[in-house]
Amino acid sequence: MIHNTQYTIHNTVKTRFAPSPTGKPHVGNIRTAIFNYLHAKAKGGKFILRIEDTDRERFIPDAINYIEKSLKWLGLVWDNEEKIHQSERLDIYQKHADQLLKAGKAYKCFCSKERLAKLREEQAAKKVAPGYDACCRKLTKEDIGKLEQEGKTSVIRFKVPDNPKEVIWDDTIRGKVSIRTDIQEDFIILKSDGYPTYHFANVIDDHLMEISTVIRGEEWIPSTPKHILLYMSFGWQPPEFAHMPLIIGSDGKKLGKRHGDTAIMDYLDKGYLADSMLNFLALLGWNDGTTQEIFTREELEKKFDLGRVGKAPSVFDIEKLNWINGEKIRAMQIDDLVKEVANFDPVFMKNKDTNLFQRALAVMQTRMVTLRDFTENSNYFFAIPKYDPGLLVFKKSDKGLTLAGLKGVLEFLGQTKEIKSPKDADKIMKEAVDSQNLSNGDVFWPVRAALSGQEKSPSPGEIMWALGQEKSKERLETAIKMLKNP
Ligand code: GLU
């Protein structure tokens, strides 16, 4: 039995992100959301958010918050009216389960936990595959009435049909997938607490919400035959299925905690741009057929093509993310970058001179990999640095030459009207070198140290330009004093 799920009854593309609120969404979950979002965008369709919160044991209330925050950070806007919580739809699942019961396609099962555990033990001892033995299939109406009168609770199980013998679907990413049905047990669709299982609620909702394309991780492939059997039992057309490749670490193993940060919001905290994350995660399995790797949001929304998603595992390469983030930071207008930094760390931005902030950021822009690189490594622009006077003397220079260099720069700085660019500042230092026959190390090094107080920093010309004349003078004077009276 072949289900060509490429054929779809829906005219418009509608995708969904259907997370279970069991913790903080990790990069794998969010890549799923991104592929669903981009596919909908590229096809002019809709993207909805469905919270699959029917597993009450694993439910974490805060998780819904995390999910929404993550999606909002990345700009994955879902169709507003359609945020759905499955826990609010129990009557719908009950009604559909009753429909299957009536049609003889499902049955009530009263087996106790103890019986099921014993069954599993026996199966393990016999080395046969574990699974429910369909014991309650044979219960008569009278049996059921009696058990219910005794107050016995039950679940509803799906009666896996003898035919088709296998379920085959044409996966948009993986091609033809076929799975035998005789290895499927009669799985539970409604639990004794009235909550549906994932399989059941997922199918009912995908159908009722007219989802055209189900894009999810490949770990869901074993569930898909169950889903297709459910669609068939209702006489519904299944949607298109696209199972995305695994994400692996650089060691070739499935991406997990041992690879470091997996929660998506950790990347916000580290100072990655939302657009970089979007770009990077979109490339985990997709490319546009060229060697282009940096994409704007608009390009991704236009160019994304599910047909170009490969099935080979994709490597989560942090170096690549760093490269993308650096490129995006460098491509930004300074005003936009200021806004990003301000959003990222409003406290850092507080009470800082706007002009100085902009110039410091312009100096750091070519050197930053993350926004944090700026907030953590640029304090000396805004506060007088503390350092050991020894730092002022270059290793091939001495105190006398250093003092001469610093004094020379101070003098030429006093004669300069305005430092319009780092090059202007370089000129001042060059004049100090030439006029006294000093070496570059007698001048550039101590100026850099005097202005930044750092072992390593951007060039002295850049810092001088960013600080401006007054602040630079002050720092040079302080350095001279420190050298004279260490
Ligand atoms: N609730 C499932 C999850 O947590 C959804 C899987 C699917 O997309 O069908 O990923």
Please tell me about this protein's structure.
This protein folds into four domains: 243 residues, HUPs (Rossmann fold, 3-Layer(aba) Sandwich); 73 residues, Orthogonal Bundle (Glutamyl-tRNA Synthetase, domain 2), CATH 1.10.1160.10; 51 residues; 96 residues, Arc Repressor Mutant, subunit A, CATH 1.10.10. 36% of the residues are buried. The N terminus is likely disordered. Helices cover 47% and strands 10% of the residues. It is elongated and about 110 Å long. It contains 20 helices and 13 strands. With 486 residues, the protein is mainly α. α9 crosses α11, α12 crosses α14 and α18 crosses α19. α1 links the parallel β2 and β3. The strands form five sheets. It has a three-stranded mixed beta sheet with strand order 1-7-8, covered by helices on one side. Strands 2-3-4 form a three-stranded parallel beta sheet, covered by helices on one side. Strands 5-6-9 form a three-stranded antiparallel beta sheet. Bound molecules: glutamic acid. The site of glutamic acid has 8 residues, from α6.
